[in-house]
Amino acid sequence: MQAALKMLRLRSRITPLCLQSVRSASTAAASRNESFATLEDKDRNFFREVLGDSNVITDTDALQPLNEDWMGKYAGKSKLALRPKSTEQVSKVLAYCNDRRLAIVPQGGNTGLVGGSIPLFDEVILLTAGLNQVISFDAVSGTLVCQAGCILEHLDSQVSAQGFTMPLDLGAKGSCQIGGNVSTNAGGLRLLRYGSLHGSVLGIEAVLADGTVVDALQTLRKDNTGYDLKQLFIGSEGTLGVVTAVSLLCPPRSSSVHVCYLAVPDFATTQKVFVKARQRLGEILSAFEFFDQQALDLTLKHLEGIRNPLPDTQTPFYLVVETSGSNEEHDNEKLQSFLEEVMEEEMVLDGTIAQDSAQIAGIWGIREGISVALKHAGPVYKYDLSIPVAEMYDLVEETRQRMAHLPVEVVGYGHLGDGNLHLNVSCQKYDDEILRHIEPFVYEWTAARRGSISAEHGLGQMKAECIRYTKPQPVVDLMLQVKNTFDPNGILNPYKVLPQVMAVAQ
Amino acid sequence: MQAALKMLRLRSRITPLCLQSVRSASTAAASRNESFATLEDKDRNFFREVLGDSNVITDTDALQPLNEDWMGKYAGKSKLALRPKSTEQVSKVLAYCNDRRLAIVPQGGNTGLVGGSIPLFDEVILLTAGLNQVISFDAVSGTLVCQAGCILEHLDSQVSAQGFTMPLDLGAKGSCQIGGNVSTNAGGLRLLRYGSLHGSVLGIEAVLADGTVVDALQTLRKDNTGYDLKQLFIGSEGTLGVVTAVSLLCPPRSSSVHVCYLAVPDFATTQKVFVKARQRLGEILSAFEFFDQQALDLTLKHLEGIRNPLPDTQTPFYLVVETSGSNEEHDNEKLQSFLEEVMEEEMVLDGTIAQDSAQIAGIWGIREGISVALKHAGPVYKYDLSIPVAEMYDLVEETRQRMAHLPVEVVGYGHLGDGNLHLNVSCQKYDDEILRHIEPFVYEWTAARRGSISAEHGLGQMKAECIRYTKPQPVVDLMLQVKNTFDPNGILNPYKVLPQVMAVAQ
């Protein structure tokens, strides 16, 4: 770590609007930061020496999927990807890149939605996939320690076998990596029950831009010795350091899980059902998700093997309510009492309870499949907003109205229990005309309600210039100072998260 | 906020041992940092102008309780305390102090155990007691927004009336302030159930050393827009900024609460009972506390109105197990099944379940009274450690053995469910001879097990030089850089938390 702080002047270039346009031209940064070096033969040679030939990727075909995101929305031009297999190798790579001023993009499962793991120009891609070892699991406390490249679903299988569960779950679980989950502060389906990663991550090992290894990989539930620096790596999207390992507190796996699927007549009623669920289901309520008719239709149309649980019911809104508890009989009683009340009080038009794990998977398949179905349907503009629940769906309706004359489908779904809306505009091709109807309208609408323009997806390259819709200037200034303290040369995931900063030596 | 970063060299003065000696001579810093200014008439005049005469305290008698902690262990020599009533006033005071290089100690309820809110020399005391307004409470989501000086117990009463509970509870609740709780990342009795404040604090408003107001007082459950800076203020003990307001997520109040009191033959068995409690009580387990016979005896001897719930049973260990749930009948069944098993399997020698709220208060009165009883008993050396549960009580026994020839009483109790031991050495007077038998032994013993030398009390002035027993050097270095970024003149709570740093202009 360089002990002396560099004297830098922070100057923000603020774009007046946050228009994101098509493909790679859509990004916050219009031009490459020329203070970064360009790759030379000596660099490739150094990396081959440190990592071995097979972990230095220069082949254009092999680079192509690493240069693009899964939605086909962002594309970079990196000529080099590196696959270190140890923290020590990450440290050597970063120290070298820092000295050489080579910009770096850390990439985990590349399942993000805001272009956070995609280079904009010729940044070197640092893959975490080679860091894929489970280090330890304590089956009494439920503490898991593992490297960053472990895949979420694999980890969940491993801890499940010992009676625990991962504290987060999301649709991308089959490919996303835990290091990416932590770096982006992934939310997902279990947040309502187990809280955010800021609570369940116990420790982090990260490598700073200059190669310093920050060993904060503690496994203690409580530790008040100094600043909780690990928190800064949670959700900073690889701009402050590369997360190489994490320790997490896994909650005990519930022996009893129930899922029900409910049809609700209007959005106001979804909230009434939520209040009732909190009262009747109490501590066993583990998920409360909603989606609209448009989302259901898209999913039934575009995904194979999805069955409509209520084929005879057409209604604007559907809910997936999950309970997880330790006593089958008690949980059943609570669920029955909840369902009887919401049916009797006519909050719910129709509903079904999954009878076995296949049916549970079937119901979750609809909710988790929406994002994939949208991808199958064509290009999609995705927004991820925290909004007071009562007003949440107004935004979907207003957006729909604004775009009634355009060939788009506007879809709303999300984590109702957390106040988190996913607003998606599905279209035939990415088109600035469409975009102008969405932005900055969506951001301004959200800002006016003191909401967040990114509840769980992060800012990435999509929204780096838009942070001020949610955070006031002094807070952004302080973030820029923190960035400058951790990464004075700005080599880590440049052009992302924060507004473009020009570092000018005085 | 000063935009340009100061060029500073960080130099650590490390004391070889962490001996804490008697009263104010006991502190980490042996001498005043002479880069701080001393108070002049013009300063007092400025403060009177900003705050009004009655909020500028210069009277020696009035200052005396603010210069001392409640244990009578730490004492400072401040000649001035200020009581701002708004964030704006705090901002004006800090901006002035920063320009004048006047050092500041923020002080909430002054209930801390490590001298964190007590000046060492002539620092100005900044009282948060005047910031005592509840700003809002959302009775649907349970989101509380309030100023830093609100007293924890008052807040709990207010949110209780609307069906919620504060996410933390501790013995000092009648005097401690929420701003202090957040600034010290207070743990307490409900952490097992509701997690740490890093999870339940949704937003913070803080004032930086230069007077910049950091408005991160969001009320959103999810917000991934940039770095989660509020996390840095949680647990940094007022060294990075003065917390002026917080927003917190309050969980729904449980309609059914049960408390039982169990006598257990040995420490190994307490862990078996804990495993059984997690299995049988599952999601309704809300506290699992232990204390030893010595702690019980002290409490019965020194506190009035405390009744021994099991007067005919003498055993080395006692447990307080609490459940909180939403269904009285279900909770009762779970508790009965747990108790039957631990009795049948002879893990528990005897036990009692509180039959009403008075009995619940009676049992909690013992556990929460231990700290007060120790104070009544005389001077006490207090340690607060995170240790793997299996080895936790070994430390108490080894300490007892080391000091068998000295006139002391060694007492162990704490949050068994969180791996958090409170080790207390009660004596007749503070005495370096006694201290030499405890330190650095306790810290080294804990460090050897990768534990934490401060689970929940913080470092304050008591353990500022001891941080390296838990945190490696690169992590401490990074903390020093963060401190320097937030508070370049080092005026905020100097001599605390981090090893002494000399800021040398180059």
From TrEMBL, chains A, B:
The keyword Transferase does not apply. Residues 74-253 form the FAD-binding PCMH-type domain. PROSITE patterns: FAD_PCMH. InterPro entries: FAD-bd_oxidored_4_C, FAD-bd_PCMH, FAD-bd_PCMH-like_sf, FAD-bd_PCMH_sub1, FAD-bd_PCMH_sub2, FAD-linked_Oxase-like_C, FAD-oxidored/transferase_4, Oxid_FAD_bind_N. Keywords: FAD, Flavoprotein, Oxidoreductase. Its cofactor is FAD. Pfam families: FAD-oxidase_C (PF02913), FAD_binding_4 (PF01565). This is G225 protein. It comes from Coccomyxa viridis. The gene is g225.
